[in-house]
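Hey Z.,

So I finally got round to the flavin-adenine dinucleotide thing we talked about over coffee. Here's the setup:
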Amino acid sequence: MDDTLLSSDHLAWREVVRDFVAREISREYVRACDVAREYPYEAYDKIVRAGWLGMLVPEAFGGAGFDLLAYLLMLWELGRFGVDFGTVFAIPAFCVMNIVRHGTPEQQDRYLRAFLEGRVRFSISITEPEAGSDVAAVSTQAVLDGEEYVINGNKLYASAAHVKDNVICMLVRTGPVGGRHHGLSLMLVPNDVPGLTMDRLPTVARRATGTNQLYLQDVRVPVGNVIGVAGDGWRLIMEHLELERISVATLYAANAQQAVDDAAAFARERIQFGKAISSFQVIKHTLAQMQTEVDAAAALVQRAATRMAAGRPAVKEVSMAKLFASETLYKVAGEGMQILGGAAQLPDMDMERYWREGKQAMVGAGSSQIHRSIIAKEMGL
Ligand SMILES: Cc1cc2nc3c(=O)[nH]c(=O)nc-3n(C[C@H](O)[C@H](O)[C@H](O)COP(=O)(O)OP(=O)(O)OC[C@H]3O[C@@H](n4cnc5c(N)ncnc54)[C@H](O)[C@@H]3O)c2cc1C
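And the result:
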């Protein structure tokens, strides 16, 4: 992000996180989690101990109560060496805000302290086999039975749903099937509840966080697990998605910057025809173009975040940031692979992982086509 637009407090905070990532986490650890498809429990615990999980959670609930920009600067540093790794911290952070903003006092009491202390994690499950881009097609049904809801259906690509102590923030239908935007509810479903089973999916990207297909058969959760009012799920999920999209857009831009840095460092060191390949004009121009596009992505992220922080409408700006940052990551990581030549094929150069995650970035949290449609609608088209 543009340093000249950041306060001295924000700049100092970014240095603290950057230093922490270098000392306590390291890019080698991030890479190893991807290769082994292992959730980074150790790093998560370190973030809990640092007190950074609750960056956005108000102080009244025991959180740090930092502003949106400070939270995004933290994500930038955590996502620098891998979007997937940063996602491990982004998903619970934006999920828990549903409880902060709309939860009952009982839910806030039960979950917020436990979350900040690392005893409970959160994930989000909206997508279903027949409800991808068309979120309003969600058909997993929750039927009221006394003081409980009985849930039946399938969910798809529920990232981190399998990790220990996870509570899934699930979009379900409490109204009639086919009711589109009406009759949807956001419900808290612990991942160890009877009747819930899941399969981990062998995806191209998001290998450390992991993503799952969920099967719900007569799963019972108390009425008190509905966030906000039953039937208000569409409004809540739209608010949730804005924070989710600016969070992931930040991770994409951060990782894209790292792709440029890695490619430039390689080009300076790789000697062919008796000179560094960075001395060839075609390589210089490619790197210059890559850096220009990453700066543009970061500027879009910063603009959208600034509008959100100011409480101004930011639907168009958030979609532009998400769209451009995801496509930039995929593009610059692809160019980075070309600059690395054969070396790019190996996981220890990281570039193939950035590229894989760039491809996923263009689909998750709303595909590129969907974001272009949102932008066009906001333009009155
Ligand atoms: C690794 C991974 C992790 C994920 N994690 C989560 C998660 O934690 N929680 C969660 O709820 N979801 C998650 N998702 C789901 C993700 O949000 C969806 O994949 C995404 O919304 C697209 O849905 P779909 O895959 O069903 O594609 P579809 O909606 O079937 O789209 C297929 C293609 O058609 C295009 N298309 C669809 N509709 C239109 C249209 N109206 N106009 C133009 N083009 C259109 C799409 O852009 C896409 O190119 C994850 C996905 C992946 C791959």
